TrEMBL record, chain A:
Record protein name field: Protein LplC
PROSITE patterns named among the record's database cross-references: ABC_TM1, PROKAR_LIPOPROTEIN
Keyword Transmembrane helix: yes
Family that this chain belongs to: Belongs to the binding-protein-dependent transport system permease family.
Lineage: Bacteria, Bacillati, Bacillota, Bacilli, Bacillales
UniProt gene name: lplC
UniProtKB/TrEMBL annotation, chain B:
Predominant localisation class: membrane
Protein name, UniProt field: Sugar ABC transporter permease
Keywords: Cell membrane, Membrane, Transmembrane, Transmembrane helix, Transport
Pfam families per UniProt: BPD_transp_1
Organism: Saccharibacillus endophyticus
Highest taxon listed in the record's lineage: Bacteria
PROSITE patterns in the record: ABC_TM1
Keyword check for Transmembrane: yes
């Protein structure tokens, strides 16, 4: 057996150490951020904090949660994530069910499928999309953040591939008992597809939470900006023109910036264990289909 | 009475068979696709028709109907513009380097991870390396701007260890390119190993057993069994990546760049955003975007054709 030879053992130990170091390197930036946010202002500004807090304090978090702009944005992000994911689930799963039918059951299936896939391959681009949102009167509303991306064709394909794997006998039995398509969809397909639906909805939630660009181009009022856009404006672009003076004074503090970044990433870190459990199946179903 | 019963039974079988036929009725299926189809029509197909503005001098006040037609003026301007050639070069550089690095690093990482026998360790490593993929570029660039600053963590280490001056990571063109590539690989390599790990788990163990009997070392097994087994999926990924050679990742560049390094860091997508939405050159920006979309479309079509031809890959 090869793994009993000395050279393989040495390799194995080195390999384990090497991979452990690499994987810790994936966590270090986040850890550093957290430690800065938990330190007092002076050592943080002087750049003394590395991977352990100096002068441990929750002051930065207290100030962040005192900031009305930040709280408003946090709430907008929650709203768009919940509403956007719920609506998208309804629209995408029903469409995926219909498209998972064979052509002899649903003759228009291939036409619809191409109709959707074309939008994956080609789009009008940034400016026509912007003008459309403007003309529809969605500017500066929550709907501008939800409706344009409501249908995600990739998710529909993921779902329909899964629906196709549901045994046909179950569906036959339901039809014989007098169920229609809607009933079959709700009582048979949905309960059997919970893993893939969980995957897709987690992807949608992460997508909504992380999405910042739509907020930047469609939302004008600071209190309606979702958190990711808010962070992008004040931290990345360092554009303070939209904030009140007190908030600006706070942001010059490195600890407060760090605490805001950390809070905005926290929901992702919290759902991550669940996400990880499901996405491997999802990705594999979508990518290496035989 | 008896007649009545049999009548009823007959009635119900008739009804049942009618229902059975009824399930073929597609109207309810049309109804189920309808919401998605309508949304796609409004938010994807209508903007596609807006592409006509690339051939106009579009003025928001005049609309599509009234704006004057100018033919290929914007495309001509684009081609005569040295800056456009520069950003196309930048885009190709970023996209191609990332594609290559994001194939090699995950490939090697998957091979190494495959040698880890302790399942608990393997799973912990996976959990950590997949994580950055889910963080947004806004979050990451917030962290990077802080860490790469003149007095940031990284420069402190560099000054301390090498005794050199701090490096201007986001303010110097070449270092900016370096930072973009490294941070992208750092964010995505873990997630990209998933597909290789899936392929690795599909290798028939009998192959290894046979090699063992023939006295092959683990390295020989890796060279002659594991690596060849990964070739098909690598070809598929590489071919499909062809459609992305003009996608340099807007989110990353947009959140890291600054006017200081436009010469080496600006890409087509960020240029379209600035020209279109910040400078109000709607038509010119749309023309640039249309050029990019058309090239990408052709490349995607070619790459899927090739992936199907060489590896029998289909999306559905």
């Amino acid at each position: 057996m090869y793994h009993k030879t000395l050279s393989y053992r040495i390799f194995s130990i080195c390999n384990n150490i090497f991979l452990t170091v690499i994987s810790i390197a994936c966590l270090l930036p986040l850890l550093h951020l957290l430690m800065v946010s938990l330190s007092s202002t002076a050592p943080a500004n002087a750049g003394l904090v590395t991977f352990w807090p100096i002068g441990f304090t929750f002051e930065a978090y207290a100030k962040t949660f005192d900031n009305a702009n930040f709280l408003a944005s946090l709430w907008v992000s929650v709203e768009r994530t919940v509403l956007g994911t719920a609506l998208a689930l309804v629209v995408n799963t029903t469409a995926a069910y219909a498209l998972s039918k064979e052509t002899h059951v649903f003759r228009a299936r291939n036409v619809y499928l191409w109709y959707f896939v074309v939008t994956m391959l080609f789009s009008g681009g940034l400016i026509p999309g912007y003008i459309l949102v403007l003309k529809l009167g969605l500017m500066n509303t929550l709907w501008a953040l939800i409706l344009p991306g409501l249908v995600a064709v990739f998710n529909i394909i993921l779902l329909l591939n899964f629906f196709r794997g549901v045994p046909k006998d179950l569906e036959e039995a339901a039809f014989i008992d007098g169920a229609g398509h809607l009933r079959t969809f709700f009582s048979i397909y949905l309960p059997l597809s919970l893993p893939v639906i969980a995957t897709v909805s987690l992807f949608m939630m992460v997508g909504h939470w992380n999405s910042y660009f739509d907020g930047i181009i469609y939302i004008r009022d600071t209190e309606k900006l979702p958190l990711a856009s808010f962070m992008q404006t004040i931290i990345v672009q360092a554009d303070m023109s939209k904030l009140d003076p007190e908030a600006v004074a706070n942001l010059s503090q490195r600890t407060i910036r760090a605490s805001q970044i950390f809070i905005s990433a926290l929901p992702i870190l919290l759902v991550y264990p669940f996400l990880q459990r499901y996405f491997v199946t999802g990705i594999v179903v979508g990518a290496v289909k035989e | 009475m008896e007649a009545n019963l049999s009548e009823q039974a007959k009635d119900s079988t008739v009804r049942r068979s009618k229902r059975k036929k009824g399930r073929g009725q597609p109207w309810i299926l049309h109804f189920m696709v309808l919401p998605a189809a309508v949304m796609v029509f409004i938010f994807s197909y209508i903007p596609m028709s807006g592409i006509v503005m690339a051939f106009q001098d579009y003025k928001p006040a005049l609309g599509f109907a009234e704006s004057p037609w100018v033919g290929l003026k914007h495309f001509q301007y684009m081609w005569e513009n040295d800056y456009f050639l520069k950003i196309t070069g930048n885009t190709l550089f970023f996209a191609c380097t990332k594609i290559i690095m994001n194939l090699i690093v995950p490939f090697v990482f998957a091979l190494l991870l495959n040698e880890v026998r302790k399942m608990a360790l393997k799973r912990s490593i996976q959990t950590l390396v997949y994580l950055p993929h889910f963080l947004s570029w806004v979050t990451l660039s917030g962290i990077l701007i802080d860490m790469l600053a003149q007095t940031g963590l990284i420069n402190q280490f560099i000054v301390y260890l090498l005794g050199t001056k701090p490096i201007f990571f986001l303010g110097d063109g070449n270092w900016f390119r370096f930072t973009v590539i490294v941070s992208d690989v750092w964010k995505e390599f873990g997630f990209n190993t998933i597909i290789f790990l899936a392929a690795l788990s599909g290798i028939n163990p009998a192959l290894y057993e046979a090699a063992e009997v023939d006295g092959a070392t683990r390295w020989k097994q890796t060279l002659h069994i594991t690596m060849p087994s990964l070739v098909p999926i690598t070809i598929v990924i590489a071919t499909l990546a062809l459609g992305n050679v003009l996608n340099a990742n807007f989110d990353q560049i947009f959140n890291l760049y600054s006017p200081l390094i436009y010469q080496q860091g600006d890409i087509i997508d960020t240029f379209v955003y600035r020209e279109g939405l910040l400078s109000g050159q709607f038509s010119f920006a749309t023309a640039v975007n249309l050029f990019k979309s058309v090239i990408s479309l052709i490349l995607i079509a070619v790459s899927y054709r090739l992936a199907y031809r060489f590896a029998g890959y289909r999306i559905f």
